[in-house]
Design brief:
The complex is a heterodimer of chains A (311) and B (473).
Chain A: H1 2-24, H2 37-47, E1 53-57, H3 59-64, H4 67-74, E2 78-80, H5 89-96, E3 105-109, H6 123-132, H7 142-147, H8 149-163, H9 168-176, H10 212-227, E4 231-235, E5 239-240, H11 241-246, H12 248-261, E6 267-268, E7 275-276, H13 290-310
Parallel strand pairs in A: 1-2, 1-3, 3-4, 4-6, 5-7
Helix pairs in contact in A: 1-8, 4-13, 6-8
Chain B: H1 6-22, H2 27-46, H3 50-67, H4 72-109, H5 127-142, H6 152-160, H7 173-176, H8 188-221, H9 228-259, H10 277-283, H11 286-297, H12 307-325, H13 329-350, H14 364-386, H15 390-402, H16 410-413, H17 415-429, H18 444-461
Helix pairs in contact in B: 2-6, 3-4, 3-5, 3-6, 4-5, 8-9, 8-17, 8-18, 9-14, 9-15, 11-12, 12-13, 13-14, 14-15
The chains are: A alpha/beta (311), B mainly alpha (473).
Chain lengths: 311, 473
């Protein structure tokens, strides 16, 4: 019995240590990994003066917006800060408050999942704050860490996978040759998929209702921007028609929630305006093809001009 | 409180500690503790449904007691009371809406308008499992195969024993109740085996089933427009998912019970290595298959009353087994098809022209061919099980053969490596006594490294977003 107890404690200790190690120790990831594009985007942000147009969101904004066209239409330099939905809207907003200056306009376009379970981020956020830019750890408050508790295990496990080059996510990224740092242009848009053939995208369904607390988080962000003399604009993410039709209940509730939380001049268009044909999506329900990107950008410009007129 | 959650980890660790340190003085106090822990475990889902287990246990305890020492015709009313109560609860919560809507559809098809009230109640977790478990007790007492249980605490603890409460194995009272009367002492060797079984169960559930679950969900969500390759992959992954999900759960349940000194029945015996459908059903969800054999198939006449009757009994048993899984015609179709697959073998055996396929000794290639054939047919039949409607299942199967082929992205193919590891390990394990029982002749460092790798693989794919499929039944 005593021997069993000792062995059990020893094994539990080794396992705990093995799981905790990747969180404490930085295990650098490949410089070409897409998450390193964060540094490039922040550098551009810091190089530019106030009056910038900053886009926040997950990969839907990197795949689906042509920042040069937006800059041309608005006369503002654009920085597309979008990277990965798994970083969570909470982190993206908290991080952005460090860089906002008077006169900036922020377009926030999170994926619909940010108003379900992804608001606080997933294991991608842990990779970002542990292995890509460790100083970002300071942005994660204790309550935020608590929300990430279920992602600590997959993060630790995948770190070992990465160490022995057995991580299939990494392999997938290498295989598709799209998710690389060098595939972002100067403004921060993804251009690696331009000219590539779209893959089949299975329709999805956003079930249930949006989490009110997460929409309120965005309202608080809007208020913080106002205090800093910056403007907030919400923009719907692009979404395929079939998936949209399947998610009607969520979409209606979400639009209603937005309308009651923000003024008309803070929302770009309607949810339906950003629904596109399924064939315009590259490899997920949020990633537009080059052609889809043109249509979405044109729609945004049109909606921005309407906003300007009404203001 | 799912087995793959932190909540269960904390709950089980605390329970185990208290169980061995504080509640071994008397059998009654130990059983009382098991009962309290089990009710707490169940109440964590929805405390209101606890009343169903309490009512079901109480009626069966009283009914069995009343049957004791009486003639068979005097025992019958008590058996009827038990059947009526248990099946009544099951029918109300699980099947009422299904039959009301089916009747409405039939009448509507005949041009008649009918309005049925539906209950729209939430299905209590594990209701089909504990109902069948407690039913077997009263039926066995009625048949005189089992003496009634005098100790209510032992009986209530048996019905609600938390490791197997929500998804089995469905344990017979004759096997389990005596264990609630035994003095248990902690056996380190058994504990190590139990921990290995839990570890292997978690690996199957988290690293395999949960990994492929999203791909399966996407395939079934997009069945009408997805390419054939994605649909085939979805069907293949679902066959793997349901096996790893359910057998993984069973391994965790058996291992957890074993850590408390209880021996639960084996529920899976490497079913995808079966060479015939008969063999498959002797290896898949064994506790349910044997339950239906003993309480439905044999009472219907089994194979004793002629070929036609045997075929009828077999088909009815499988149709009911399908319905047991869920209130949907898809489950009935799945059960019916599995029954049909067994008929040729049964007829051949009855005519004594050939020996049972499962026991035939063919060449290695024949065996491999038979294993692949059984797997592919089983995989295609799972499409009915996974689909939301019969029309979806038919369209899914049609599109598997008629849609275009597109090479799926690497992301969808990467679980194949893990599945290959799974089958290689299972092949190795099928030669050993218990799952993940690494030979003692291996150096401890090698064994510990392997355990650590499995633990890290579980961590890699850990997610709170997938529950156990069989919990819904």
């Amino acid at each position: 019995m005593k021997r069993f107890k000792l062995k059990a404690i020893l094994f539990a200790g080794i396992l705990t240590l093995a799981l905790a190690l990747p969180i404490v120790v930085q295990v650098p990831i490949d410089e070409e990994n897409m998450l390193h594009a964060y540094t490039d985007k922040v550098n551009r942000l810091q190089r530019l003066d106030g009056g910038r147009l900053i886009i926040i969101g997950g990969s839907n904004v990197t795949f689906g917006i042509n920042s040069s066209e937006l800059a041309q239409a608005t006369g503002r330099p654009v920085v597309n800060m979008g990277l990965h939905a798994g970083l969570g809207l909470k982190f993206s907003m908290d991080d952005m408050l460090r860089y906002v200056r008077k006169g900036d306009v922020l377009i926030v376009s999170p994926e619909y999942q940010q108003f379900k379970g992804m608001y606080y981020g997933r294991d991608v956020l842990l990779i970002m704050v542990s292995d890509v830019v460790p100083e970002l750890k300071r942005l994660i408050k204790p309550m935020h860490w608590w929300r990430l508790r279920n992602d600590l295990l997959p993060y630790a496990g995948s770190t070992y996978g990465r160490l022995v080059s057995f991580d299939f996510k990494k392999a997938d990224h290498a295989w598709s040759s799209v998710y690389n740092r060098s595939n972002y242009n100067e403004e921060g848009d993804m251009i690696g998929h331009h000219g590539q053939q779209a893959k089949y995208v299975l329709p999805r369904k956003v079930v249930g209702l949006p989490v009110v607390e997460h929409v309120e988080g965005m309202v608080a962000f809007r208020d913080s921007l106002k205090n800093r003399g910056a403007a907030f604009i919400y923009s719907f993410p692009s979404y395929p028609k079939t998936s949209f039709d399947r998610s009607q209940k969520f979409m209606r509730a979400f639009q209603k929630q937005l309308n009651s939380s923000f003024s008309e001049s803070e929302i770009l268009g309607n949810v339906e305006d950003y629904v596109f044909e399924d064939s315009l999506f590259f490899n997920t329900v949020y990633h537009l093809t080059e052609e889809g990107k043109k249509l979405r950008t044109a729609q945004m410009i049109e909606d921005l001009q309407t906003l300007d007129t009404s203001n | 409180m799912y087995f793959n959650s932190f909540e269960f980890f904390i709950f089980f660790l605390g329970t185990l500690f208290a169980y061995w340190y504080f509640f071994q003085r008397t059998i009654t106090s130990r059983n009382l503790f098991i009962l309290a822990a089990s009710y707490l475990f169940y109440a964590y889902w929805d405390w209101r449904f606890l009343s169903l287990i309490v009512v079901s246990s109480a009626i069966d305890f009283v009914a069995a007691k009343q049957m004791s020492g009486r003639a068979k015709n005097e025992r019958k009313p008590w058996l009827v009371l038990s059947l009526f109560t248990n099946l009544g609860i099951l029918f109300t919560f699980k099947y009422f809406d299904f039959f009301a809507e089916s009747a409405k559809a039939v009448l509507s098809g005949l041009g008649m308008e009918a309005s049925f009230t539906t209950l729209n109640v939430v299905l209590p977790v594990g209701i089909s499992f504990y109902t069948f478990q407690t039913l077997s007790y009263t039926i066995d007492v009625y048949r005189g195969k089992l003496a009634h249980e005098k100790d209510p605490i032992a009986f209530f603890a048996y019905v609600s024993f938390f490791p197997q409460l929500v998804a089995g194995p469905i344990e017979r009272a004759g096997r389990m109740l005596p264990q609630f009367k035994e003095i248990h002492s902690f056996n380190p060797t058994m504990a190590v085996k139990a921990l290995r079984q839990i570890l292997w169960g978690l690996f199957k559930k988290v690293a395999i089933a949960d990994q492929v679950a999203d791909i399966v969900n996407h395939s079934y969500a997009g069945y009408s427009s997805a390419p054939a390759s994605v649909l085939w992959l979805g069907a293949f992954y679902f066959a793997i998912e349901i096996y790893c999900d359910f057998s993984g759960y069973s391994d965790i349940a058996i291992g957890s019970a074993r850590l408390m000194g209880f021996r639960l029945s084996e529920n899976f015996r490497y079913p995808y290595f079966a060479r015939s459908f008969r063999e498959f059903w002797r290896r898949w969800h064994i506790s349910l298959s044997t339950w239906f054999r003993d309480y439905v198939y044999i009472p219907l006449g089994g194979s004793r009353k002629g070929t036609l009757r045997a075929v009828f009994s077999l088909l009815l048993t499988f149709l009911l087994s399908g319905l047991w899984h869920g209130a949907n015609w898809t489950f009935v179709a799945w059960g019916g098809l599995n029954g049909l697959y067994l008929i040729p073998g049964m007829l051949l055996r009855r005519k004594a022209k050939t020996r049972a396929l499962s026991t035939s000794k063919g060449t290695f290639l024949n065996s491999v061919g038979a294993v692949i054939l059984v797997f592919v047919v089983t995989m295609l039949t799972w499409v009915f099980f996974r689909s939301e409607s019969l029309s979806q299942a038919v369209e899914y199967l049609q599109n598997m053969f008629l849609s275009d082929w597109v090479i799926p992205p690497y992301r969808k193919l990467s679980p194949l490596y893990w599945i290959a590891i799974l089958f290689a390990m299972e092949w190795f394990m099928s030669k050993t006594e218990k799952p993940f029982n690494l030979p003692d002749t291996w150096h401890p460092i090698l064994r510990w490294t392997l355990y650590l790798v499995v633990c890290l693989s579980i961590a890699r794919f850990f997610t709170i977003y997938h529950t156990f499929i069989y919990f819904q039944f």
